[in-house]
Write a structure and sequence with these properties.
The chain is mostly helical. It contains eight helices and no strands. α3 packs across α6.
Amino acid sequence: MQSNALYAFFDEIGDITRFTGKFFIELFKSRFELKEFLRQCFYIGNKSFGLVAITAFIMGLVITIQSRPTLVEFGAEAWLPKMVSVSLIREIAPVITALICAGKIGSGIGAELGSMKVTEQIDAMDVSGTNPYKYLVVTRVMATTLMIPVLVTLADAISLYGAYLGANIRGIVSWDLFWSQVFDTIVYSDLFPSILKTYFFGFIIGIIGCYKGFNSKKGTEGVGQSANSAVVISSLLVFVIDLLAVQITDVLNLN
């Protein structure tokens, strides 16, 4: 039983690897589907912005409120903007935003392509002469790779504004003082790695969502399983990529 599960695990890893390799092959072929790519960028970016913005604002507000008592206890309340800004920019905002997108975008792609698979729309595209992989997969993966960093950047700004409001709930921190402390604390080595890893977040969310949709089983139950497994696997891989990014950044900073 365990050997069968292990075999299925490595078999799926191989399938995902082949699926990813095919993406890069199709990406550099001629006739890029620009119109579909822009439509997916609008859907992924615009349609997800509201949820990301609300979550980022609450996240910055709550973290600031929760951090204040500990800093007050040690007489370090003045460090509140510095500590919160570094925590949000480096780790919290990128990872939470990626997880939100994995839940909303990853499941949406998996369910959409899964429905097209079980209703044989993908087969019909292939028969009609349209490359379904290039039209459906390449455009969606490129859109998620591009738009997740944009959403994370906006989430960073909104969460910092939420942190500013949180700092003024039980104290008084001027606008100029708060932002001067934030920008004095955040350095290039904080900002660049946190944005760079979001491109990998977006890529893996798009690849897993498309892979699960393209390999959906027959019936509505298969579509639901594709959407669910797309969220689970992409969320797990977001944490794995984040762990690797933190380790690489730590090694580079030591050197």
